[in-house]
Amino acid sequence: MSVTDDAIEAIKQMIVDGELRPGDRLPREVELAARLGLSRNSLREAVRALALVRVLDVRQGDGTYVTSLEPSLLLDAMGFMVDFHRDDSVLQVFEVRRIIEPAATALAATAMPDEDIEGLAVLLDSIGDDPSVEELVDNDLEFHRRIAVGSGNAVLSSLVESFSGRTQRARTWRGITEEGVPERTLAEHRAIQQALAAREAEVARAWATVHIAGVEQWLRRALVDQPPA
């Protein structure tokens, strides 16, 4: 482990132990370096790294503060990295979605308020039976976002939103190139909504798995069929 890694670990431990809380200002650099037994340079590098992943907020002329540490804020850094995926590595994003979104959907079957589940049906009805690809993808993103929020787990919800939004390009691509996508997508969404309304967690989980796996399988085939660059 490098000296900078040691410094990152030391600051992280102060946060985990509750010595530094969300919104707290870090001690002055010279004081913190001496206290942790680190050089000011290594401490500076650690602060820079933790600022990049949104754990710390460096305010010019004011000091360095611990951020709110909200899951959505911390996961922004992960989403930033996912944005730089190669076409084939987006498959890994779908693999993650296939693991976490069915879990979120099952939780939503017990935690999501009735009016929010009814709102999903209204959302699906709002685009009619023959939506454009753009309308379908926007509706799809909102459908999955609402279910993630309905899980009642803020960390899981942030993960779902972070990964789901980063697959928008692939979903648009599928809508343009594959026949029958709107009908299939809406049918699967309605099956998920109905399972949620019936409070059938495992049925909702199964439909969510089928839904996401279908896009993943299409993308695998599409990438295999791509001509070499």
TrEMBL record:
What Gene3D superfamilies does this protein's entry cite?
Answer: GntR ligand-binding domain-like, Winged helix-like DNA-binding domain superfamily/Winged helix DNA-binding domain
Q: Where is the HTH gntR-type domain?
A: 1-69
GO MF annotations in UniProt: DNA binding; DNA-binding transcription factor activity
Q: Which UniProt keywords apply?
A: DNA-binding, Transcription, Transcription regulation
Q: What PANTHER family does the database record attribute to this sequence?
A: TRANSCRIPTIONAL REGULATOR, GNTR FAMILY, UXU OPERON TRANSCRIPTIONAL REGULATOR
The protein's name: GntR family transcriptional regulator
UniProt organism field: Amycolatopsis taiwanensis
